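Anyone else keep sequences and C-alpha cells together like this?

Example one:
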Amino acid sequence: MELRQLEYFVAVAEERNFTRAAERVHISQSGVSAQIRRLEQELGAELFDRSARTVTLTVAGRAALGHARAALAAAGALGQAVGEVTDLIRGRLTVGMVIGCTLTPLFGALAAFHQAHPGVEISLLEDSSDRLVEGVRTGAVDLALIGAATATPDGLDALTIISERLVAAVPAGHPLAKQRRVTLHDLVAHPIVCMPPGTGLRTVFDQACAAQNLRPSITLQASAADAIADLAARGLAVAVLSDSMAAHYRDRLTARTIDDVDTPALLALVWKSTHSPGMRELLVHSRQAFTEPDPTTSPRTHGALP
C-alpha cells in the first residue's frame, strides 16, 4: 500500500468522478484507475461502485476513507516536522537594533541561540526605529529592538522591555537643576540636545511638544546617550533622556522628570505574527534573556531608550 494510492482514493471519493480526480492529482485517468485497482486487490474489497455515472463509495470504501485521510495527514505532519528541524539546522535570521542602544540581554539571547543552532546564520544591523519597523513589516528584518512611543506598532507583535518617563538632564549649576519641578514650558526656554527623529524617545518628546503647541529649540542631536550626556555636561544644551539613561550620568548631571510628559518612552522587541521555526526559537531565547538575565553579561543597558 502506497501513499499515492491513498491520495488517489481520497481524490476519487471526494470528486465522485475518476476524470476530475485525475485532473486534481495531475496524472492520467488510466493511471488513477490502475492504482485504485491495485489498492482494492491488496485490501481484498472493492472501494467504489462504478455501475452509475457518478462514482460512489461501497461499504468497504466508506470504512476506509477516514483512515486514508488520517494516514495522509500523518504523512504531511511528518514532512512538516522534518522541515522545521531542517530549517533550524540551516538558515538565516536578521536581527535589527536601534542605533545608539547597547542592551546586553539581547546579545545574550543571540549567543544562546547560536550555541543551540550553530548552523543558522545571524545578521545584526543598526538603524532607526522607524526603518527597523518597516523592515520587520516587509520581512527584511526578522526581529528588531526598537524605541517606540506605543506598545505595539500596527500589524506586529511586541515584547516591551523598558517603559520609562522622559527627564531633563543638566549640570549642577544649571537653572533647571534648582527647580523641584520641570515642565515642557520650562524646558523649551533652553536649547536642547536630544535623539534624532525616528527614535522612540524623540517621538514621545515631539508629540508632547506638539500637544501643547510648543516649538523646542533642538540645537544638537546625537544617537548615542554618551554623546548627549557629554554635550549637556559641557553646558551646551539641556539633555532629554529616559530615566535609566540619565541615571548613568548622575555624577555629572542632575535629572528632573518632565512632569507634564506622561507618555512613557518604550524599548521593545517587535516581530511579525507569522514566522519561521528558527524565529520561534530565537523568541524563546529572547524572552528568557530579558526575564532571566544572564549573570555572565553586564546588567547595564547602555542607551536604553533611544
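And example two:
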Amino acid sequence: MDFVAIDFETANGQPHSACQLAAVVVENGQVVNEMSWLVRPPRMYFSPHNIAIHGIRPQDVMDAATMEGVWPEFKELVGSHVLLAHNAGFDMRVLIHSLSAFDIACHPFEYSCTRLLSRAAWPGRRRYGLKALADSLGIQFKHHDALEDSRCCAHIALAVAKTVQVDSLEALEEKLNISRGRYHHSLLQGPRSRSKRNAQTLQLRSQSDRWGFPNQNPSIRSPSVDAERVAQVAGSSKPLAGRTLVLLGPLRGLNMQASIKLLEDLGAKCSSEISAETHYVVACGTTLAEANQVVLEQTSRPSQGRDTPIRILSERQLYALLPGGQAALNW
C-alpha cells in the first residue's frame, strides 16, 4: 500500500481558509514520513465555530507561512503518490482553492476516500465518521488535529486493505469496485462506487481555467479597500518594499492616483509598463486570464533576467498582501 494521507483544518467556512495541513506518507504498508504545517490563511478571520472544533486561533498562525510558502515542501513530500483523505472531497477542494488564492496552479493528481472505502469494505455500519471508525478499530487519536487525523486516515486505509486481503491501493479499489478520484483541467471528479451511475464531478471553472491556471470568479465581487485603515495598521512598515507592481485599473473604491499612492506608501514601486522588473500585475476590473493576455502582449519573455516569473493577481489576491486583513476592507 503506497499513498499519502492528508487532512486540512480551516479558519472559517471558506474553502481557501486553510489554517493547518498535515500529510502522512505510507509506502509498502508502513508509515515512512509525516509532516504538519500551521498555515496563515489569506484572511485572518477565524469563525468561533471552527475555533471550537480545532482550537486554532489567529495568534497561532500569525507567524506561519501561507499556502504559497507551504506548497513547495508539501508538493515534494507527496511526489507522485495518490492522495487519501476522509471525506476527501472537502480536503481536495480546500487544497485547490487555497492554492488558487495565491495564484498557484494545482497540478493534476489522483485521490481516494477512506470513508468510501470503509463503506464498501464494512457495509451495514451505522456511522462511518473518522472518530466512529477509529473507535471501532481501536485507533487512539486526537480528533481535529490535522496530523492526528491524517495518521488515523492512514491506519483506516491499512485496516481496510487487511480486511479485503490486498497489498496495494489499486487492488483494493478493484476488489471493492471503486473508481479513483482525479483532478485535472480544473475538474474535480470524486471517487465513487462503480455500481452507482453518477460520478460526483465538481467544475472549478471559477478557480481555474482549462489548463489548470487560477482564474478570477466574476460572480464574486471584490471588496473596496479602506486606504486610511491600511495606512493606520501599516504604520511605518513597508510590506511591499522591493516589489514592482503594474495596476491594470484602479483598486475598487479608489481612483488610479489614490491606488498608486496607497501602494507606494506601502513600499511598492508602481509602473505603467510591464517588464522583466515587474513582480505583480494586478487585474483590477478584469479577469486573470485577460490580464495574462496583456502580459503576453507586452512582453514575450516575462521572466527574462529574473529568478521567478511575473505573478498576476486579482484584486482579492492583492488584498491578502495588505496589512490589516479583514479590517482594511469594506465588503
